[in-house]
Write a structure and sequence with these properties.
156 residues, alpha+beta, 3-stranded antiparallel beta sheet, 4 helices, 3 strands, elongated, L-asp_N-monooxygenase_NS-form
Length: 156
C-alpha cells in the first residue's frame, strides 16, 4: 500500500500503481487525515471510516515531512534561530538566512525539508537546481561588491 500525494510523483509511477491495483495485487485507500495506523503482530492495521484494513506489507511513501528550526543539526545555528523566535528559518528569495543578524545574507539555506512549509510540493532535481542557481547568484553578487577598507593612520 502506498500513501502519497499523487500530484507530486511521476505519472508513470501512478500508472504502475493503478495497473497493480487493476490486477488485484494492491489495495489503494483514500484516507485523508482521519485514520489510525497500528502494527499488530506481523501486519499493519489501518482504521478509517469505521473500517479495519489489514496489510502484510505496508509501504509508507509520503516522503519527507516539513522540519522546523529545532530540527537543524547544527547546534549553534539552531540555538541562534530559536533565540530569534524563528520556528521556521526566515529565508530570503536568494535562499540566504535573514536572521539572526550575524548570519543575514551570509548563510545559504536550501534544505528542502525546511522550505516545505510554504512550498509543500518542493522536491526533485529541477527544484534543487533552481535553488542552487539562486544561491550561486547570491554568492556571486556579494562577491562582486567592492570591500571598502577603513582608513588606518598606521598605514601612513
Amino acid at each position: 500500500m502506498f500513501i502519497d500525494n499523487y500530484a507530486a510523483i511521476p505519472s508513470e509511477s501512478v500508472r504502475r500503481l493503478l495497473a497493480l491495483h487493476d490486477a488485484g495485487l494492491i489495495e489503494i485507500l483514500t484516507l485523508g487525515a482521519d485514520y489510525e495506523r497500528t502494527n499488530e503482530q506481523e501486519m499493519t492495521v489501518i482504521y478509517h471510516h469505521g473500517r479495519r484494513s489489514e496489510f502484510d506489507v505496508f509501504i509508507d511513501a509520503r516522503g519527507q515531512r516539513a522540519l522546523q528550526s529545532k530540527n537543524i543539526p547544527f547546534p549553534t545555528l539552531r540555538d541562534q534561530l530559536l533565540a530569534c523566535g524563528d520556528e521556521i528559518p526566515d529565508i530570503g528569495e536568494d535562499y540566504t538566512l535573514q536572521a539572526p543578524e550575524n548570519a543575514r545574507n551570509r548563510i545559504a539555506f536550501g534544505g528542502l525539508p525546511w522550505l516545505m512549509h510554504d512550498r509543500p510540493f518542493i522536491q526533485g532535481l529541477v527544484v534543487s537546481a533552481e535553488i542552487g542557481a539562486a544561491m550561486a547568484r547570491a554568492l556571486t553578487q556579494r562577491a562582486l561588491r567592492r570591500r571598502h577598507k577603513l582608513w588606518n593612520s598606521d598605514d601612513i
